[in-house]
Amino acid sequence: MTATASALVETLEDLDVEYVFGYPGGRVIELLEHLPDSTVDLVRPRDEREASVMAEMHGRLTGKPGVLAGQGPWIGSLGMIGQMEARLSSSPMVVLTEASERGEYSTLAPYQQARGDYGGFSLPSILDGVSKEWWFPRTPIETLRSTQLAFKHAVAGRPGPTAVILDGDAITDEVPDDPTPTAWDAREQTRTWDAAPTAATVATAAEALEDADRPVIISGNGVHAAQAYDELAAVADAYDCVVVTSYLGKSTYPETDERAGGVIGSFGHEGANQVVSEADALLVVGCRLNPMDTNWQAPEFIRPDEQTIVHADVDTRNAGWVYPADVGLIGDAAESLAALADAGEGTNDWATPRAAEASEWFDAPECEDDSAPIKPQRAAKAIESVVDEDTIVTADSGNNRFWLLYYLRTPAVRTYFGSGGVGGMGWANPAAVSAALTTDRDVIAVAGDGGFSMTMNSVETAVEYGVAPTFVVLNDTSLGMVRQMQHEDGDIAGVEFHDTDFVKVAEAFGAVGTRATDPDEFVGALEDGKAADVPHVIDVRIDREEDMAATLASSFYDSIGGLHE
Over pLDDT 90: what percentage of the chain? Predict the structure, then answer.
């Protein structure tokens, strides 16, 4: 017979899992004991929070589940940031955790026990609030089948996180030689099939786009999830459309293309928002149209009674969820777009010149300002200057991501990813390390000093695992977005930070640290970081008086009172 933990690792090998991101503890140690003799590598950052983000980013980039492993109490607390982002950003993830079961001791004033029975806390309840599906197997064969199903459901339909809670005999016993029921071949059991829209709905959608004089595509994160970039471009060309994106859809379409109109939303490009308002037909692809995307339902933005809406999504619930849709294309984005590209064609005299006009919002006079401290608009353009089609930018939450959204024009698909699902601070650093491990591309992480500090241990993880992202800290020595919500200085507590020496922090972790106080220094430091084979941390002193919301808020957002975040 085979030990269950060993068989579980063999399942990971059969499914071509490259990395497990995790931290040793509890019954997960049973699993980690077998990894050194396998083809699966463990990436162990300094805590479960960073591991969870790394797993989420791995899944986002590859389309295969990123695997997170760790002890239950910490996977259910520290490790939740990546799981929540995976749920709302549709990133496939499999969580292998455990309940810290102590056998006969579990009901005696339990220590760490997470089964949810007498005296303990309920890890299943915690995971149930976030994961697509979760399993709590009771036997070795259930452990193997549950793991297979976790991988299947992490990618089936709309991707997301799934979880298996390892416990007691179900991980420590041996797998019977001839069990009933059996565990089938892992590859066969985890197979999924792409859904596609019906021919009739494709024909109706094609007719709507052919009849349009001002057709606009809103491209969302579902295009990233399906890697449907070529199909998106084919539809834009076939029906002569302007292409705008949601925040999570940024870099699903090159923003340097003649059809690109920018990013929509509350702090999106004014030009892109105006284009959507002017459209007579909207093709929404892989975008749920959350409040940030829709300018918080500003009445003059999207108008279902005046505009034809075709909504393509893998999840039937999402099509027509926020606004009534005239046509729903239910299926994988690549399948829906490919069918639509073949179904018709249309031309107009509006799209290309209108996109060119809209894309002017990528620039502003401050983008050329060489003063010190550095204008955040100028900082975004400095980053843009070193981003090519082989570079990935990971953007954190807070003011920094909106400056990047607005002024960093992506040159190719898959060059920009942000924490826009749950939008947690501290995401960019571990995401960058994961991207560097997962790809052979240059990676630039961008965060404010608040977000960088939350996960700056990721710099050490990068050093330890031999990858070299460049970590950019847009430093205003404050929690900038919240500070700028103040009516008067000092009327919100907790917004000012001690001025941390991030250069020394970087050096302590074994990286290179640089402080940039003017644009030329910053560009030079970025170029050095990209060329290096060790991580660089660039402490960029930005002008804290540049008010993000006042500068970037769209007119539609202002029309409903500017709710902010």
Answer: 85
